[in-house]
Amino acid sequence: MKFYDCATAPSPRRVRILMAEKGIEIETVQVDLMNGEQMSEAFRKINPLGEVPVLELDDGTSLTQVMAICRYLEEIYPDIPLFGRDPVERARVDSINDQLQANGMVAVMEAFRNATPGFVNRAMPGPHNYEQIPALSERGKLRLDNFFSDLEAHLANNQYMVDDYFSVADITAFAAVEFARWVKKSVPEEYSNLLRWYQQVKQRPSTAA
Amino acid sequence: MKFYDCATAPSPRRVRILMAEKGIEIETVQVDLMNGEQMSEAFRKINPLGEVPVLELDDGTSLTQVMAICRYLEEIYPDIPLFGRDPVERARVDSINDQLQANGMVAVMEAFRNATPGFVNRAMPGPHNYEQIPALSERGKLRLDNFFSDLEAHLANNQYMVDDYFSVADITAFAAVEFARWVKKSVPEEYSNLLRWYQQVKQRPSTAA
């Protein structure tokens, strides 16, 4: 297998953290997003969407999308389960992970891409060009305020995103909280539950990935 | 188990179609979204997000989010698998399903909620209020044009979303194509591959759900 990555990008980072948690090592190729390598003819043979991460299997099959790749790795490396340990727990991890993706990762992405000069006409990733919408960047920042306050409330009663079980949902939330710095949003200092959780996750060696 | 539904809403419909494909029958409660029942105190005890669908388990646990519910049902009713039949196929279904969700379902939702008078201040579902952004509604319609043309190209080489295997990704795509009517977008008549696929899926009894 070969993992197409970009060391500075938040989406492939989620896969890197998951691999580190599971102790998986996969040959990794850096894709130079800063210089548009993801849109090169060579890379679009690997992923026509022009996006990282990609997990290329030995038979040449390319797996794309963060969660599909993570779930595949969970399935072939089931030790240290990160998607839940029974059907109900798996559904709870899945549910909150989807919300963290939509309300955290996507909110930062909208805030960032719709207001950053280098992304004129590239307000969304993928093969199609879309103009920036300044109001969408502003809404992204508002959504991050709610993202932080919702997490603060949630973590008053949970050690991790689902009870006391560290899961892929914590990886998503952690990546989103750190990605939020790109739009100058950070956890308010009075959010003691969220900060406690953040420090706890930050101490895991995997988050250096 | 109890399934909280709204017969006219596109998100719970995806679960209904999956249940029909699998031949599952679950006691169903209609939630009156038109009159805001999802935001009532009684319903928010079941789902604090104020959203359908919800699958309430016999012990009172509420499972939320379309895909988490569908995946849970796949796990407890594994006959007639709709998420793939081996790890690679599951990853491929997952990957394209995520794209169909983002580029189809979400695009219609953005186009619809950001331009419909009844959704002033309610541009996103969930507990927080957000103002409408007219440019986001317009972008949603542009994205649907690309959604249709991408599917047309994809279906030139695939009977269904993943090869000749009918999966949950086809349910997502079908729900998105029909949801697009809400913003007066329909498949262009020259898109013969997409229309062939649509008719083929439409003929399945499950789509009456």
Alpha carbon gyration radius of chain A: 17 Å
User: What is the highest CATH level, the class of the largest domain in chain A?
Assistant: Mainly Alpha
The major pleated sheet of chain A works out as: 4 strands, mixed
Structural shape of chain A: globular
Q: What low-confidence regions of chain A span 5 or more consecutive residues with pLDDT below 50?
A: none
| Strand content bin of chain A | 5-15%
Compute the number of strand runs of chain A.
Answer: 4
Interface with most residues: A-B, 34 and 34 residues
- Structural class by SSE content of chain A: alpha+beta
Question: Which CATH architecture of the largest domain in chain A would you pick?
Answer: Up-down Bundle
How many domains, in number, for the residues of chain A? 2
Oligomeric description of these chains: homodimer
Kindly report the average pLDDT value of chain A.
Answer: 97
Helix residue percentage of chain A: 40-55%
CATH fold assignment of the largest domain in chain A:
Glutathione S-transferase Yfyf (Class Pi), Chain A, domain 2
End-to-end span of chain A in angstroms?
A: 18 Å
State the strand order across the main sheet of chain A: 2-1-3-4
Can you offer a commentary on this structure?
By secondary structure, chain A is α+β, with helices and mostly antiparallel strands. Chain A is built from 7 helices and 4 strands. The first copy, chain A, has a 4-stranded mixed beta sheet with strand order 2-1-3-4. In chain A, helix 4 (87-113) runs parallel beside helix 6 (168-179) and helix 5 (134-154) packs across helix 7 (192-202). The radius of gyration of chain A is 17 Å and the shape is globular. The A-B interface holds A 49, 57, 61, 63-65, 67-69, 71-72, 75-76, 87-88, 90-92, 94-95, 98-99, 103, 126, 128, 130-131, 133, 135-136, 139, 142-143, 146 and B 49, 57, 61, 63-65, 67-69, 71-72, 75-76, 87-88, 90-92, 94-95, 98-99, 103, 126, 128, 130-131, 133, 135-136, 139, 142-143, 146.
